[in-house]
Structure formats: C-alpha cells, structure tokens
Design brief:
Blueprint lengths: L1 H18 L6 E5 L10 E5 L5 E5 L9 E8 L5 E7 L1 H13 L4 E6 L2 E7 L8 E8 L1 H10 L18 H4 L22
Antiparallel strand pairs: 1-6, 2-3, 4-5, 5-8, 6-7
Length: about 190
C-alpha cells in the first residue's frame, strides 16, 4: 500500500515531464502526393497563401541540429543555416536524392517559413532557411543551440590564460636530412 502511494505520484510526474513540449521546434517536411491519405499527409498553408501537401512526419527536426548560423536576409527578415549531426546529415543526403524535384518545407514553431526546391544532392550536413524568421525566433535559437563563429567563454576565471597560451614557446628542430647511402635493400 505504501509503495502505491509513492509510485502513483512519481508516475504522474514522469508523464507530465514526458508530455512537456520543447520551447523551440524546427522541422523540415517533404512535399508528398495529395492522394497519399490522411494518415501520411497533411495540408500546409504557406506564407504566400498557397497550399501544399506535406508528409506528416518530418524528415529533419531540432534534435538533428548541433549548431546554427543566423544572418539577416535582404527582405528584412532573418535567415539561418543549420549544421546537422550525423543522423541529420544522412537524412538530408537521402532525402535530397529521393525527393529531387520536390519541395522541402521548413517550419519554425509550427509556422511554415519557407518551401525550397530540392534540385541537387546535399551531403555537407548544412540546411538553410534563407528568410522569413523573426528576430525573437533567432534569439530563442541562440539560447538553444551553439552559434557557429562565436566563441563562448566557458572558463571559470576569464583572466586565466587558455591552455594553448600557457604553453611555453618551444622551438621545433629542423627536419633531419637523410642522405642516401650505398646500402642495398634487405631481401626478406
């Protein structure tokens, strides 16, 4: 009886923790056949009011992102490049081969941001949303992911020199020059 009194509240807390949604979602869905059915496809309305049929399950999610590189776009909104982990890189490579000629739709916090034509194989593990994001979304991304090109001071004492700076300058001797000798190769 005492076990169940402790077990049920802990079980309820674990379900609440598991049910909490992430503060930031970044999803990339592929365009699918409109006749695929409701279990596989869903309609999405894009910012330009066009409607696309997309796969219900995303190909790439925020779980595949290891770093970001935000930048301002020409239209005044923000864009961002995403560096993917191994799983995301392989997913991007395979979808860029399998869905060539189709659209890849990028969502940020369940909002469709862009639709990009897949026209070539992508194997470098970087996917970019060129425009359409807000500065508040970028600020949330910077809190969630490391930013490429920015160095963060993670040391406890910022006045302490880094390990590379603390090493003394050691002169490296010049490479040895080996003169050919008159020895014949061994016959093994």
């Amino acid at each position: 009886m005492r076990f169940s009194r402790l077990f049920l509240p802990l079980l309820a807390l674990s379900f609440l923790a598991a049910a909490s949604k992430p503060k930031l979602t970044i999803r990339f869905h592929t365009e699918t056949n409109p006749n695929s059915g409701a279990s596989f496809a869903v309609k999405a309305t894009m910012p330009d009011s066009s409607t696309l049929t997309i796969s219900k399950i995303p190909e790439i999610t925020e779980k595949d992102i290891v770093a970001i590189f935000p930048f301002p776009s020409a239209d005044g909104s923000m864009g961002c490049a995403f560096r993917l982990d191994n799983h995301g890189r392989l997913a991007l490579t395979s979808l860029s081969e399998e869905y060539r000629g189709s659209l890849l739709i990028g969502f940020v916090n369940a909002r469709p941001v862009t639709a990009m034509l897949i026209d070539s194989r992508i194997s470098d593990g970087v996917i970019t949303i060129p425009r359409g994001m807000t500065p508040s979304e970028i600020a949330l991304m910077k809190k969630t992911f490391p930013t490429l090109g920015e160095k963060k001071n993670t040391k406890a004492n910022p006045k302490e020199p880094e390990a590379a700076d603390a090493m003394p300058n050691i002169a490296v001797p010049p490479p040895l020059r080996i003169e050919p000798s008159g020895l014949a190769p061994r016959g093994d």
